[in-house]
Amino acid sequence: MKLAFSTLGVPGLPVPEVLALATAHGYHGVELRAHPEEPVHPGLSPAERAETAALFKSAGVEVLGLAGYARVAAPGDDAPVLEELRQLLRLAHDLGAPFVRVFPGADPDRPREESDALAARRLGTAAEDASALGVRILLETHDSHRTGADAIRILGPVGHRQVGALWDVMHTWLGGEQPSQTYAALAPHLGYVQVKDIASAEDTTPLPLGAGVLPLTECVDVLSRQGWDGWLCWEYEKRWYDAAAPLAGLLGGGREHLLRLLGAAA
């Protein structure tokens, strides 16, 4: 498995400094938070996109994916959601990123079946654009669909190879799902896995990997037993928690912890 970290952990950090952290600490890739307050977002010009891609290539670091904020099960017209998705897909293509992350974001007061069908319809439509651009859309286990069992209700009906799943280990744990259950649900669709750690269900302030309660050992064991060889991406949510320790000082230890888990599972 290859290791990456998300720029959610280093809010606003310029790309050259992000790449310096990745190379200094032995990470193979970076997940870029695609938001207007970040250096990389869909508003970049063609020249800025080319410059960013060149920086990654020169550093020997891969753009794992773009963490977008499109909510595919949210109520409302399809057109704005599809346009947001297409902008993300074009940016990912220009940067050489294989994945774009989206959220479910369903209205809890709406019948579940309606939200699932809405998301599946939008993803099925966007899948054609994704296929043309060589990018895969990944639905994250998050908010209204936090478990693998939830996500598969959308992904199953879509049935397109360019639409898959992003497994966020915190949300599936909070949803009461065991790693083996999540993997069984998402295996045919799994793009990559976001790892992290927290103190408890009540305190989700990010912690160094291995310092909290999330079942990282079990997740790595399940993936290893199944021969899965994709990406593990550390999503350290510093952007939302000012009091959390800076990620830069934790990256080395985080990589060592993941390597220990991988070694033990081998």
How helix-rich are the residues, as a percent range? 40-55%
> Order of strands across the biggest sheet?
1-2-3-4-5-6-7-8
Give the overall pLDDT as a whole number. Answer: 98
The helix tally amounts to 9
- Looking at how many chains there are and whether they match, the oligomeric state comes to single chain
Task: Kindly describe this structure.
The chain has 266 residues and is α/β, with parallel strands linked by helices. The protein has an 8-stranded parallel beta barrel with strand order 1-2-3-4-5-6-7-8, surrounded by 7 helices. The longest helix is centred in the middle third of the chain and has 22 residues. The radius of gyration is 17 Å and the shape is globular. The termini are close together.
Features of the shown structure:
8 strands; 266 residues; single chain; alpha/beta; 43% helix; eight-stranded parallel barrel
Secondary structure layout plus pairing:
Layout: E1 2-6, H1 15-25, E2 29-33, H2 46-59, E3 62-71, H3 78-95, E4 99-103, H4 112-133, E5 136-140, H5 148-158, E6 163-168, H6 169-174, H7 179-186, E7 190-195, H8 216-225, E8 231-234, H9 251-265
Parallel strand pairs: 1-2, 1-8, 2-3, 3-4, 4-5, 5-6, 6-7, 7-8
Helix pairs in contact: 1-2, 3-4, 4-5, 5-7, 8-9
